[in-house]
């Protein structure tokens, strides 16, 4: 592997051996509950589909992700990885990953912006043939500062909603010069990771960080995409009163038909006890909303970047800022109200001090899709034109079949007659 100016995680930790042991313990626990990755590991180890590939990754470096990274390395790849969020890395897991002879981990928790991108530059110095991204920062960096790599990169895979939005905008501008699979948009990701994963992990993290109950609270959900639906569904299931704020009239109508109260954010601001943003957009909650909020509200973000709750506006209004609790910062207003921000406005289910991210079983499915997409790029990447691509349906179904088999769940198949009927236009009344 190439030498780089930015050091791997092993150079940043004082008690490296202890960190490695603890990280491995976390990874082993997660792997016990990841039947999809275990099944794929057997295949990858036997067939070495990634032999000769170099993979650069920017992901949330924690135990579940680490098992995906090791799967790719065990399938023959050389892997360089760093974080995609300054507060989501688990240093012990990063250290454990770095012990693998085919993996270099540059991920360190709590880095500043300069260090964040230094680590990404270090990954790209390995001259990847495949990129795996969560948020699109690495793809953007390749195109802006490493154009010479583009010809040798066969393709990439993007994990999350925000990243896919950015990629599609880049593609529409004619600026995306290699193929990238929109992993986020495939059914095995949308139906489970975004709904159940985001919903469960966000609410669990907020409850553990604050030690507060959901029952009876007015929970305002900003955005009713798949993540917002998950948050709303899980909050309602814990006896909260859910209010949805949405800009798309169809999604607003869907939320209304699901039984939720639908309001503009300026009106919801007057009623909410907890605010959770899930849009992937900026300025969902701003000054005009802060001015209407009640004393003691909680402000949390479950979107990718820390721009959904406008902290600059909040800081301008505040006469004091203080640590209210580990992972909670209080902003005191001139009238004495305190508005509480969780995890610095970053992705709450990964950036809060005690957060663990999505449930293991959910991420097993999403990372299974990532793994088969990387395999597809290694084997057939030359058949894809530059741009954003849907995950091939047979790959998504492959992951679902592995999961069902692991759970001992059987299902029906179409007969030849049914298949012919569904594929014909000639059958009528």
TrEMBL record:
Region (Disordered), start-end ranges: 1-20
Record-level GO BP terms: L-homocysteine biosynthetic process; one-carbon metabolic process; S-adenosylmethionine cycle
Cofactor binding remark: Binds 1 NAD(+) per subunit.
E.C. number: 3.13.2.1
Catalyzed reactions: S-adenosyl-L-homocysteine + H2O = L-homocysteine + adenosine
Required co-factors: NAD(+)
Annotated compartments: Cytoplasm
Origin: domain of life: Archaea
Keywords, ordered alphabetically: Cytoplasm, Hydrolase, NAD, One-carbon metabolism
Positions annotated to bind substrate: 134, 159, 189, 193
UniProt KW Ion transport keyword: no
Pathway entry: Amino-acid biosynthesis; L-homocysteine biosynthesis; L-homocysteine from S-adenosyl-L-homocysteine: step 1/1
Cellular component annotations (GO), alphabetically ordered: cytosol
Pfam family, one: AdoHcyase
Transmembrane segments: none
UniProt binding sites for NAD(+): 160-162, 194, 223-230, 246, 281, 302-304, 349, 358
Cross-referenced InterPro entries: Adenosylhomocyst_ase-like_sf, Adenosylhomocysteinase-like, Ado_hCys_hydrolase_NAD-bd, NAD(P)-bd_dom_sf, S-Ado-L-homoCys_hydrolase_CS
Ranges annotated as biased composition (Polar residues): 1-13
GO MF assignments: adenosylhomocysteinase activity
Function: May play a key role in the regulation of the intracellular concentration of adenosylhomocysteine.
Family from the record: Belongs to the adenosylhomocysteinase family.
PANTHER family: ADENOSYLHOMOCYSTEINASE
Name of protein: Adenosylhomocysteinase
Organism, scientific name: Halorubrum aidingense JCM 13560
Lineage: Archaea, Methanobacteriati, Methanobacteriota, Stenosarchaea group, Halobacteria
